[in-house]
Amino acid sequence: MSAPQWPDGLSDSTPLPYTIWRVLHQVDGVRDITEVARLAGLTVPDVNERLNAAAQWINRAAQREQQVTDQTATMVTQCLMPIIGPMAEVMVDEVLDDLGAQATLSALLSGLARQLTPERVQQFARNLRDRGIT
To answer: Which residues form the DUF8082 domain (predicted)?
Structure first.
């Protein structure tokens, strides 16, 4: 079996859940997946699952740091609309205006979340996840 590798874009400072780091700590590019599983105290399918989860985390992190496009702004507005109604479009536009031309998805979502109650933030996050935005 070949040795598993860290996903592209992953670094020591990437915030990941412990269950994923527990596996990645054993991945050194030399050990095969069976040895990584043994050292992590998991099964080979569990290791594969954690490696796939790490790649998904990296992809989501990269997505959050991309600049906001018109399409992304529209999708965010659509996720916010069921929670606060037609004011969603105004809120998104105002946050984007405040952020300027280099607005990232992460900054947009943070700016919107600061204006919502904790319950609404949770619903907003669910709506974003359902659309594959975060």
So the answer is: 75-129
Q: How far is CA 95 from CA 22, 91, 99, 108, 111, in A?
A: 38, 6, 6, 6, 6
pLDDT per residue over 9-35, tens digit each? 888 877 888 999 999 999 998 999 999
C-alpha closest to that of 11 among 24, 29, 26, 30: 24
